[in-house]
Design goal:
alpha+beta; Alpha-Beta Plaits; 6-stranded mixed beta sheet; 4-stranded antiparallel beta sheet; globular
Chain lengths: ~450, ~450
């Protein structure tokens, strides 16, 4: 490790310059005018992998290519699969950027550019740590697959097929992703759980066309009133979800986890104030972080029906639609939840109203056993690089690839975020603290060492 | 009456030709390109009034002029105020008309044109009946004011001011309006009640901006879910409105009225089927017609909030808005109802949500005492002309001028519809059965005679 550490120190400036080169490529996957740039970013990543001695290739897909690199020279040792992405969000609105989105600029110790943290900068830490091992020790203590895709920001349409087609080649023991955040500055974290999601759309149809509310009002079921009634029935006055069976498969939140969350440096009132809200809300008996990370939800994301212009219009609308998502927690089955939700709504729908139900995408929640030796390895690696014991956190959002790695390759994933949740991901002036960039590389270099100690199951 | 009846028979064809002349004028009040035409229609009505011996004038307003005619030569007799309008709805969509909207054409005994029934044709019946009296008897048995406006289809913005400014001049005993319908072909009606209305808009605001539903969902009140909850609370499971005091001032529906409604030739199931609905809905204990005519409502006319595009978007919306109208029945005070509705919503609104409430327009319900001698006079006049006893009905909609006549002049209004509710008002191929046109003129001629017998209060 001594030679590796030395290499990281000596080459720190070059790493920054290389990252800047990658950040200058406007690899906006959503914008086909940037298809050439997106491919250039893939080729840059490919060249990096080849330069450090991985066996690497560009894998063509129906969309943007996937870059795969591997080094399998540690027989008997665990195999880690590093996932990241080289594509970025569109930079709009351009006029809100202090320095241009694709001209990386360092200010106050941070590098500003689209993709600085999401995910070019974070992904690059693993490439550089592997390079350090290969260029000094001449080998890695573990086997690695590195899969860097170019469609994360547009739904990863071609990733599942790639993973499925290459499931034998990619056989691994644990996933590694740096696409999340530390809990706070100086508070590095291991994210051991994510919520899942199901998304559905519900339309209630009443009369064939909008009716005069004077002539007919009071004698026909109003689809907007009835949709409101159905939505209201989804929660009781403790804000518990009323869909039968919804909570059945959820194990209680452990005392250990509740203690971890409670100890975090988090001021719920201040957090709500930043959102412009004067009071919290949620399931009775849980704290704000528990509600966000460890309890399921049923939120209407959008609703529309009837007249939406200026002033009044005296109609009984012919239909109303709601878009609903449930955030799921580990052990809830998305298919079962969607079926239960549909049945609940159909059971409560009154005569005179037709209900249409569209099942959108879904993805189960993930949780890694916090006692897993891989988690232990990650904690040690972070402690060594950040000089602070990492906290154990979850996130409320979903990272579909984590569920995919579980489903297709059967592996858990270590979510090791080096950035901050204030780094303006998906917004103007995205940035990444350079100190965190270098600590991330160092933690990654330690991770290979620590993972090598883990006895494979 | 014999000479009057004879005159109506002799001049029937001329009346039709004169109506056609009026119908050829495209007096579309909503379209300023037709301002010249709209004024021409007013001048046509003025000339008619002057030709039959009324003292008449064009009253300029901030919008289209009002035509006023009067004959006050029957001292001691009651004074009737006839209201009508010479403006019409836009004719669009033009390509749906079998014969052009402003080229009146007779087919199957009906005259087809925009305004045929609403309201040129119906309004014209009163002008022709007055003409018949004046040209034969040389006088009317009652006093009359005739007020024909040109802004009914665009909200009657200038009518209230005119009535208020001329309240002394226009002092009358009873209003007469033919702008409704018979109950069915061969079933003439006196409409003795209308519902009122209040219109409000409610917006719930939560977070300053849309939030990521994964990161924050479950820990902040969702404005769409909460708006749905408030809307759902408006009704109980008997579909009774839950706003405290909402029903307090409503007298029970009388057995006589319930019997009238029950005896009408009305097939509720067939009516719902025409609307595309397989089942009725409404307040327990009331029939379809009672729900439409004699019971109040609380309908959401429109709702919107959050994401309304294609597919899902995983947000907690920052706000949601509903447009709500209550249809009111006689004795409910619009101001009191709006206040009670606002208080109800504010009381139920949870912490973490700000409620904005906008009070729109309102208008009380109207009901004429069915034992009133004016009603009796109208029933006799209709019986004489239609050779059928008129049924006593209400309407679920509002005709604001009826409330205005009550408020400003202190008079009740006789709503005497000569058309059918299948005459395509506001739609292509509007028409008016010529037999109904002539029966309307005859009923109006009898009405002056019958009203003369009424002892003024």
């Amino acid at each position: 490790m001594q030679h590796v550490e030395q290499y990281l120190t000596t080459n720190a400036s070059r790493f920054e310059e290389e990252l800047k080169t990658l950040l200058r490529i406007p690899s906006v996957s959503a914008d086909s005018r940037h298809n050439g740039d997106t491919r250039r970013a893939a080729e840059f990543v490919l060249a990096q992998m080849q330069g450090m001695g991985l066996t690497a290739e560009l894998v063509e897909t129906a969309g943007h290519p996937i870059v795969h690199g591997q080094w399998l020279g540690a027989p008997g040792a665990p195999t880690a699969l590093v996932y990241g992405h080289y594509d970025v969000q569109p930079p709009d609105p351009l006029d809100k950027w202090i320095s241009p989105a694709f001209e990386p600029t360092v200010r106050d110790g941070c590098i500003y550019a689209r993709g600085a943290t999401d995910d070019k900068g974070q992904m690059f830490t693993h490439l550089k740590s592997i390079e350090a091992w290969m260029k000094t020790v001449g080998k890695l203590p573990v086997n690695v697959h590195v899969v860097i895709e170019g469609e994360e920001e547009v739904g990863s349409d071609n990733l599942d097929k790639y993973l499925d087609d290459h499931r034998t080649q990619l056989k691994s023991d644990v996933g590694v992703i740096s696409d999340t955040s530390q809990f706070a500055p100086g508070v590095p974290a291991v994210t051991y759980g994510l919520r899942g999601i199901v998304a559905v759309e519900v339309t209630l149809r009443g009369p064939r066309q909008d009716l005069h509310s004077g002539v007919f009002g009071g004698s026909v079921a109003n689809p907007v009133n009835q949709l409101a009634r159905l939505i209201a029935l989804l929660h009781d006055d403790q804000n518990r979800i009323q869909i039968p069976g919804f909570y059945d498969d959820i194990p209680p939140l452990s005392d250990v986890e509740r203690e971890w969350f409670a100890k975090l440096p988090f001021d719920a009132a201040a957090d709500l104030q930043k959102l412009g809200i004067d009071s919290g809300w949620g399931e009775t008996g849980y704290t704000t972080l528990e509600r966000r990370w460890a309890r399921p939800t049923c939120d209407v994301n959008g609703i529309f029906g009837g007249y939406q212009g200026e002033g009044p219009k005296t109609i009984v609308p012919s239909f109303a639609t709601a878009k609903i998502t449930c955030r799921l927690v580990p052990n809830q089955d998305p298919v079962k939840i969607v079926k239960a939700l549909e049945k609940f709504l159909r059971d409560k729908c009154p005569a005179g109203i037709k209900l249409e139900f569209t099942d959108g995408h879904g993805c189960p929640a993930c949780a890694v056993d916090t006692k897993s030796p891989y988690i232990g390895a990650a904690r040690k690696a972070i402690q060594a690089a950040f000089d602070a014991e990492p906290v154990m956190i979850r996130e409320g959002g979903s990272i579909p690839v984590v569920a995919t790695l579980r489903q297709i390759l059967g592996i858990d994933t270590l979510l090791l975020g080096w950035g901050q949740n204030t780094d303006n991901l998906h917004s103007p002036n995205e940035h990444f603290r350079l100190a965190d960039f270098h600590r991330g590389i160092r933690a990654s270099a330690h991770l290979w060492q620590e993972l090598a100690q883990v006895k494979r199951a």
